[in-house]
Write a structure and sequence with these properties.
Helix content: 40-55%
Structural class: alpha/beta
Bound molecules: 1,3-dihydroxyacetonephosphate, iron/sulfur cluster
Length: about 290
């Protein structure tokens, strides 16, 4: 079973069995009966597949494909913070863009596709600590009205979009709608007509009553959208320096590396069982709560 995230290059998307967002990929990884899951995305996504389906062999084209959000919240730092603040009795919600070690310290996981739903189901009497994305966390607070303490992490790709860069492209296409990922800063989210996960962008663009749509997220999304919405003019959101934004980690995967990992069934994702089991509980809670 070849799973690919929406940010993978077009050639990889074309041969995948399923292309989607983190949430859709987690459901697919849990449900598959295939013996081998080939995960084209970044490491935490392949690790999530192993956590929810440990009897399968999970391989990925490049095991060094990391994520700046994952790096911004090391498990030992979160552990120390929770111990220092034990009196607060935090309910910890982790965005799925984090390591298995961080997942193991949390009560529930969320993705950008279900974050509002998950936060709305958090116990009302407990303070929430949201890790590791301060921008997604701020957006969830704006949308739900629920106060949360935010870990100071961000996605190095999405913070490259600025109020200036998006205002300029809006001036060029005054009739365009703007759809942005919630990992963008508030200054950018305020310019968007819709803020949503990569998968919801597909539905939004299909149903939008206009031709021109500015898509403020990683560039791989444009391939998926152009394939699914051939009648729309999909314009990549620019940064101050570039016409679009690439995630260097997502782009570490290539068709050649994918061929090699299929041929060699390597590199694999391995996890120590007690850590895996602790990381699985909050993931299963998420899958249950986001139905
Ligand atoms: P989605 O879950 O919306 O696909 O986002 C994943 C991601 O890494 C965004 O940068
Ligand atoms: Fe991580 Fe950002 Fe790349 Fe998504 S786009 S994988 S959040 S670094």
């Amino acid at each position: 079973m070849i799973l690919a995230h929406n940010y993978q290059t077009g050639d990889i998307q074309e041969i995948a069995d399923y292309v989607g967002d983190s949430l859709g990929l987690a459901y697919q990884a849990k449900a598959t009966e295939a013996d081998v899951i080939v995960f084209c995305g970044v490491h935490f996504m392949a690790e999530t597949a192993k956590i929810v389906n440990p009897s399968k062999t999970v391989v990925l084209p490049d095991k060094d494909a990391g994520c700046s959000l994952e790096q911004s919240c090391p498990a030992d730092q979160l552990d120390a913070f929770l111990k220092d603040n034990a009196d607060k009795n935090y309910y910890v919600i982790a965005y799925i863009n984090c390591s298995g070690g961080v997942k193991a310290l949390c009560d529930v996981i969320c993705t950008s596709g279900n974050a509002l739903k998950i936060v709305q189901q958090a116990p009302a009497e407990r303070p929430i600590l949201f890790v590791p994305d301060e921008n997604l966390g701020a957006w969830v607070m704006e949308q739900t009205g629920r106060k949360m303490d935010l870990w100071r992490g961000n996605c190095y790709v999405h913070v490259e979009f600025t109020r200036d860069s998006i205002s300029k492209i809006k001036e060029e296409y005054p009739d365009a709608l703007v759809v942005a990922h919630p990992e963008c800063t508030q200054a950018v989210r305020l310019l968007a007509d819709e803020v949503c996960s990569t998968e919801k962008m597909v539905t939004y663009c299909k149903e939008a009553p206009v031709e021109n749509i500015i898509v403020v997220t990683e560039s791989g999304m444009l391939h998926r959208l152009r394939r699914e919405c051939p009648d729309k003019n999909l314009i990549a959101g620019p940064t101050d320096h570039c016409a679009c934004a690439d995630c260097r980690y997502m782009k570490m995967n290539t068709l050649q590396k994918l061929r090699d990992c299929l041929a060699n069934l390597s590199p694999t994702v391995e996890m120590e069982e007690s850590l895996r089991a602790r990381a699985e509980a909050p993931l299963l809670r998420m899958l249950e709560q986001s139905k």
